[in-house]
Amino acid sequence: MWLLFLLLAWCAAVVSCVRVCRTAIAAGRIRHQAPSAPADDAPAPDDGGLTLYETAYLSGGPHRLADVVLVLMAQQRRLHLAHTGWATVVDPVGHDPVERAALTAIGPEGQRPIPAVRSALSTTDTVRGMADRLVRAGLAAPAAVRSGIGSAVRQVQGAALLVVLAAGATYWMAPAGNGAGLILAWFALPLILTLATWAIARVEAHPYTDWATEAGTALLRHVHPGVRKRPAGAVPGGLTGLALHGPDALADPGLRAALHSSGA
Question: How far is CA 178 from CA 7, 8, 185, 187, in A?
């Protein structure tokens, strides 16, 4: 019976580890590929320009984009961001498509928790359209790449848990004094394989879960020199700092509290 558990553990370990490797290789090819010819409405790597919203998306994805538009409207006193993590509409008029999408995400009641606004805004046609343009220009990684890496890592985690459960079941079912310790030693190999793959993936897969491709990162560095080399303790203020580095870049403690209390 223990051979069946061992076979199950090995199958789960090998399949999950192979999937991580294949997904990482595919993601690496996409991330390192040269940008394709951009469409007329897509930013080009050599045009030297990115909008504030595009900068936010490439630096932190749709949630960073949501934070930027909410803070922008709050600074213009068209939204109120409470330190408890709620967004309240003061002026229900959007000045651009992203602002109008943010107001739609907040909803007709004019008040909504910021995490819900982030999630709703990321699914709007406006944000999806921007993401598609950046992907077509070779600046942003497709969503499937990020989700594929995350799913593969979670499968390795599940395989490691399955190995532990199979080893526990084997130990529980093994007759006393029948070499249970030696049998369990066989389960150490698939457990080491899954844990090692999991550990490597946590370190090495991070670049493949970035929102920007290599070309997008290079453009960010060109437009905003030092974007990836911010010294510890340096806090660039303003919306550009928020777009590049997240809520910690904000000088206003009230806005920082609003975004942090909502899970940023």
Answer: 20, 21, 14, 16
- The predicted-structure confidence for 141-183, as pLDDT tens digits, reads as follows 887 776 777 788 889 999 999 999 998 888 887 766 556 677 7
**Considering the chain, what percentage of its residues have pLDDT values greater than 90?**
46
Strand-pair partners of 81:
87
Which of 69, 74, 76 is closest to 118 using CA atoms? 69
Whole-angstrom Cα distance, residue 1 to residue 252? 63
* Domain range summary for the chain, segments of one domain joined by +: 2-35+142-209, 60-137+236-261
Answer for the pair 20, 152: CB distance below 8 angstroms, yes or no: yes
Tokens of 169: 């079941």
Closest listed residue to residue 209, CA positions, set 155, 142, 264:
142
DSSP output for the chain? -HHHHHHHHHHHHHHHHHHHHHHHHHHHHHHHSPPPPPPTTS--TTS----HHHHHHHHHHHHHHHHHHHHHHHHTTSEEE-TTSEEEESS---SSHHHHHHHHHH-TTSEEEHHHHHHHHHTSHHHHHHHHHHHHTTSB--HHHHHHHHHHHHHHHHHHHHHHHHHHHHHHHSPTTSSHHHHHHHHHHHHHHHHHHHHHHHHHSGGGGSSB-HHHHHHHHHHSTTTT-PPTT----HHHHHHHH-GGG-S-HHHHHHHHHTT-
Q: According to the per-residue pLDDT averaged within each range, which of 45-54, 107-116, 197-206, 217-226 is highest?
A: 107-116
Q: Which residue type occupies 44?
A: A
Q: What is the pTM of this model?
A: 0.72
Residue with tokens 């004019």: 110
Query: What pLDDT, on the 0 to 100 scale, is given for residue 107?
Result: 93
